[in-house]
Structure formats: structure tokens, C-alpha cells
User: Fold these one by one.
Assistant:
Number 1:
Amino acid sequence: MTAANRPSAKVTLPTPPTARLVLLVDDSAAQRRLLARLLTRGGYQVAEAATGDEALAICARLAPDLVLSDWNMPGMTGLEFCAAFRAMSRPNYGYFILLTSNPDARAITEGLQAGADDFLHKPVAPQELLARIAAGERILRVEEELRASNTQLRAALAQLSETQAAIERDLREARKLQQGLVRERSGRFGQFELSLLLRPAGHIGGDLVGFFPICPERVGLYALDVSGHGVTAALLTAQLSVHLSGSSDQNIALRGAQAGSDSVGPAALAHFFNNMMLEEMNTDTYFTMIYAELNHVSGRLRMVQAGHPHPALQRADGQVQHLGQGGMPVGVFEHPLFDEIDITLDPGDRLLIASDGITEAATPNGRQLGNDGLEAVMRTNAFLQGHSFLESMAWSVSEYCRGERQDDMSAILIEHRGTGKVIRLDD
């Protein structure tokens, strides 16, 4: 035994956290015994094979963690055995060290291409063997940690997928419930036709439109747009819908009429909601609103604008006028200024109250539709009425933003269906 091969009493192997199995493959029994003795003292389990075929059988049965294989063996060479080892199906990674007496760079390249992780030059020095084994231990520990992390990640992703599926189901049901808040999509009051559009950008949204009768001559209409999207906005929308429902004991606008007096006026209703948002709700959410009272006998329309986009009035001759000064949103300021609008709708006129999901719809390069674009849509679709007009408008908006709509769309269309002038399409 040479000095290089003689084990030193001072050499100690690091004890692995678990007894790893090392497979020694060498046609020399003496060489296997030498290496086996050293590895066993280090706490490793050792298996031995004299040929490549015998080693493959052991690998198939025991799946060793580390393999030390001689390059030059009768029959299957160490290089061929390494390639066959890499082709096997394994539960974990196997670290492969080739023992070679040829330090030639070309041989090293061939070994790496066959799948070897490291090399040891013969005769094997115990110190170098320990260093190579330690390096292999580090690689195996990293691989095990990654595998464990991947297992945890797959489990987390599976759980997340199940949770997401449950959320999707809940949101679909929530969408049905939210759509149910708009109990009627159209109504006829005298010579006036009311049509509603509500189209969330996602499963649920923060827009709300509706109407309710106040008395035999008047009807209340509302359009709300809660800031943000998703569940928070939808919950506030649901709460607001209770205060604007047709039930006289819940509807804020009808409480005055229930008490024998007039209904709560548009501006007073906006101030009520503003106080409710500031005093009763612990949230940073706010909303814009238009609330209107329509006298469908006289055609008079009184409304309040609280930060909502300007209503678009299209007269019977086709001319379009954007109404209001804007006003402040509801739930932001203690003493807000709301804009009050008072107009009369004549036969052939119609008023469109649209959310900013329509006027702020943008092309991929960021150009918004705006009031001018909305006016163009109204002129183009002037020959349509009711839901046909609203659906055509919604299609035009979607086409304008190439289907990448980021906000909810909602609208109220008020049409005086009495005898009036024919709308000219060439204006």
C-alpha cells in the first residue's frame, strides 16, 4: 500500500444527517475494501459491485445516494455505466464520481457529458476523497431541500387552486346576486321609457343603477359608482341599494313621502349619503352619484351630480349637450358642494347618464373615449332606442378599447317617447 493510499488516523469523515448509501464500483476487490473501510467509518452505508451490469442491478434495487465508479472496467466501462445510471428513473438525485487515472481534459469532458458530477484521480488520496464526498453531500442536501420546497410549493399551489376555484364559484354567485340588485332593466312611465345597463368589468363591480316610483307623477332614478373594484366595492354597492330600494320603509328618498310630506330631494339625498359615509362607515371608499327625480307628466327632471360624469342630453334634433359642473364625490368632504341640475325633456329628447367606465374607456395607447367620443357614439346610434341603443353603445366602447375594458360600465337612458322631431343622423 502506498503512502497516498494508506488511511490516516487523523482523517475523519463528516457524519451525514442520515446514513447515505454509497455504491463502490470497481473490478479491484482490494480497492473496494480500502474505500469501503474509509466510508464506513464515516457513517455511510456501502454497497459494492465489480462490474457495470452488477452495479445497475444494485441501483435499480437500492437507489444509492452516491456512486464511486472506476473508469476502466472489463465489459461496461465506467463512462458507459455513468450514462446508463443517468438514464434510470430515480426518486432523488444520485451524485456520481468517476475514478480515473487519466487527467486528460478530453476525458474529463467526456465524463461530464456522460453525466458525472466529479472526478477522482487514482491512486485515490483519502484527503481528496473526503473533500469530494463533502461536496457531494452539499449537493445532495441542496437537492433534498429543493425537492422538499417543491413538494410544499406544489401542495400550496394545489390548495391555492382549490381556494381560487371556491372563490370563483362564490364570485359567480355574487355576480348573480349583484345583478339581482337591478330588479327591473326597463320601465315605462307615461310617455317616458327608462332603460338600464349594468356590466361589471370582472365578476362583480361597484356600479349600480336603478329606478323606483315615488308617486303617481314622479319616478326616482339613480346611478352610483363606488371607488375601486371587487368585493369591497360590491359590498358598499349592496348596502346603498338597500337605501334606494323600492321598499318605502328602507328607501331614504321615500321616507318623506311615507311621513305624509314630499320625498327627500336630490341634493338632500346626496348630503344624507355623505354624512352616512363619514360618520357610520370606517372606510376610505367613496362613490360618485347622480340621483334624479323625473316628473313623467310634465317632463321636468331635477337631479344632483356628485362627482359623476356629465349627463348627455340629446335633443330631438340630434344636438348633444353635456350637463352639470361635476360636483364633489360622496364620502370625501365634510361640507361638499354638489351640483343641482333642473331641465325639461320634450318629446323626442333623451338623456344618457353614463359611468366613467364608458367615458374613460381607453385605447391600448391610452387615449380615452371622453365626452366627445360618447357624443359621437350617441349620434351614430341615434336611430336606436332603449336597450338596443345601450347594447350598441356598450359594443362600441368595447371595440374602442380593443376588449381591454378595465372598469365597470353602467348607464341609464331616459327617453321621451312622445311625438317629436325626427333625429337627423347627418348632424
Number 2:
Amino acid sequence: MKAKVTGRKMFFAGKWVARSRVIKVYDPQDNSLIDTVPAATVEDILKCIDEAKDGAKIAARLPVHRRMSILQKAADYIESNQKTYANTIAREGSKTIREATKEVGRCIQTLRISAEEARRIHGETIAFDQMPGSENRFGYYQRVPIGIIGAITPFNDPLNLVAHKVGPAIAAGNAIIVKPATVTPLSALLLAEAFAEAGLPEKVLSVITGYGNEIGDALVTHHAVRMISFTGGLNAGEEIVRKAGLKKVSMELGSNSPVIVLEDANLEDAVKATIAGAFWAAGQNCLGVQRVFIQEKIMEPFQKAFVQLTRQYHIGNKLSPKTDMGPLISELEAIRVETMVNEAVEKGAVLLTGGKRDGAYYLPTVITNVPEDCTIAKEEIFGPVVLLYSVKDLDMAINTANSVNYGLQAGIFTNDVHKAHEAISRLEVGGIMINDSSDYRIDAMPFGGVKKSGLGREGISFAIQEMTEVKVVCFKL
């Protein structure tokens, strides 16, 4: 599919602006040019932050009913243009058209939930008379906007993960500057278009396109930016924390999520759920199933069914509704995954299916008997690769699952409620799904991890807590 390259503008403090230097946006499926976007400079970021200072004051003064109305109208606009949004997600990223359509639906939900949560930003009264001598005092605390938020977003959910930062920020009365992934900026610009059409005042929202290594530091380190909300890789996250200074930081840094399948589980359900969780968006998913621990008694039938179903996956054109999985975001990423798998096989791992690359495509891959010293056994793959492990019992599965530096979400399949609760209490993760894969999430729930999987929580009402400050008020009567 070829598209006319017109040159998109970036959303600079509520105005659409162009720049002479541009970034080319390619479709990873065939490397065809989709469009171009401006390559912002450090000067652009600094000017944008100055505009956002006024934007923060404007946003804080917006009454709650206006915030709610704007968020609902933005959702309405996206709902009226779903095909455009889905096609954009599918073309600039890795998702199939079916996956992209689901992301558009989730984005609409994210904005509608944000509108509802705007009315629920509450404080509480404080019993000052609990302290002797304060009998004549009365007061409360309230939550107030933090000010300017800098948001840095990844390529794998180029619309909804942006909405997860913009929706709560606007609901809470903040200004926000978004720096979307360089390879997938078009979906974020479409989100800005929805807010412009919805009547969001100028200067409240900016979507600045550019190279992270050129403009990222200016956004992260600026003293006027009071919070950085980042979703991406561990190395980049650690670098941001070192540079950010005295401000709030929210981080979602990925994982190598475990799923445990015990011998009393429904085998068919476990196989279907773990496969769907492993290969969604070509495995480029922070919640994606990477390590599956199967109780030894059912290892053979589970493995056989898992491999059989994996081989039935249809790989091909992202825009075809028949396609189950598209390419990775780039050929370089596919080569990186290929290298990790090859290292494991060279060290003794057994390749059960897949393991082949064609450009940016990498076949859904299943391996077992993976040595502990392999990179793929310890780090996030972020590709369509699953590791199967045979374990003696739940204790062994939990200990092995916890042996890595990540802890975002986990899943366990069992019909024994006592074993489920043991996993709940012992697994070192931010969320655990019972009789489902690690890849289950709704947009209203708290979302985030422990250890090196991140800091803080997303999920609209929880993000609003992160994006507001507590102010105490006390009257001396």
C-alpha cells in the first residue's frame, strides 16, 4: 500500500508547525516511505516549555466539566475516524490491522475513563484537634495539578500509551509535552488532532517530533518540567533517572514475564492464552509472555500443543484481516532477536519451531532447555520468542520466575485456590493474572512493576495520583 507523502506538522503548543529538517517515517513491512515529520531542535523544546508554563496555568483553571467535555469530545473524534487511526497504527508500526483496531478502541476507552476520573480527584478532611492545643483548627487536603509533564512514549502502542499519559494529565489540570517514538510519531500527532478538534486550549498540549538523542535531555532536565512519564527500555529509563533531577519520575521499563502452568490447569485454555500473550504485536509488548514454567507431568502435552498452534500462525501483510502477526519494528530489531536466539541454541537450547528471519519478519519461535547464562534467559526479548521450562512443582516455578531483575506481571493457570494464593503472595511482580497469561490488562487498573520493571503506576486514576500534588489547608477558627 502506497500513500501520498505530504509532510505532517508537529503540534507545538496548540499550533501546527513545520520545520525545514524532517524525519522520514517508514513502514517496517516493506520499508516504504509513509510520511515525514519535523525534526525538532533543542530550541524548539525550550520554546515549547516556555509556552507550557502558560499552558499549565490555563489547564489548572479549566473547570472539571470543561476537562471532561474536552476528553469526551476527543474520544468522539477518534471514534468517528477509527479506520484512519487503525491504518496509521498498522502502517507505521508492527501491529496487524486487527491489533491496531483493538488499540484504537482501547484509546477511546482510556480517554473516556480519564473524563470520568476528572470528577473524582478528591481530598479529605483532617482532624487537627487530635493534637492537644489544636482544638480550634479545622482543615483538609486537596490534590492540585503538578504543572508541566514531559512524556516520552514507545513505538509498540503508539496511540494508546500516549493517551495513557495525555488523558490523566488533562483530567488533572496539567500541561503536557509529548515526545513520541521517532519511528512511530504519526499516531501521536493524530491524538493531538483529536484534542485540537475537541477544543483543548492552546499551550496545554504539545506533541514534539524529533530525535531523542537531540532533544530528550532538554525535556528531561528542564527545571520547569515537574514530572517525567516514561515508557521504554531499562537503559534509557536509568539514564533519565540520573539526569532528571528533583522532580517526579514515572517509569514503565518492560519485563520478561513468567507464566506458570500447573498440572491441574485447563491445558487448552493455558496454551491458547500463553500463545496469544507471547506473539501479540510480534512479541513487542512489555507484558508479553516470555517464560512459561510447566509442571513436569504435563510438559509433553503442553509443549506439543503449544508448538502445533504456534505453527498455525499466519505471518504476512499487516493490513490483511487474516494476518496474525506482522514484522518487528525494524530489520535491526529482528536481527537483535535472531542473535539472542542463536546464542541460546549455540549454548545448548533446543529450537522447537521458528528461529528464521526474513528482513524485519521473525517467525514465532519456541525454545526449551535454555541454559541460565544465556542473554535470552535473563533479559527482555521484546520479540516473538517463548521459552518453555519443565518444573517439578510450584515452589520451583516461583523461585525461578523471581530469579530475574524484572517484575511487571505474571500469570498462573491452576484450579487450586490455595496454590493461586501462594503464587499471589510470593511472585515478585506488580500484577498477577489467575488462569490467564501475563498479557492481560484493562486501562482502568493500576499498571506497573517492581524491581527493574519500573517506578510508580499507570492506569488512569493511579496516573492522576502521580500527576498531582497534595496541598494541606488549615483554618484557625
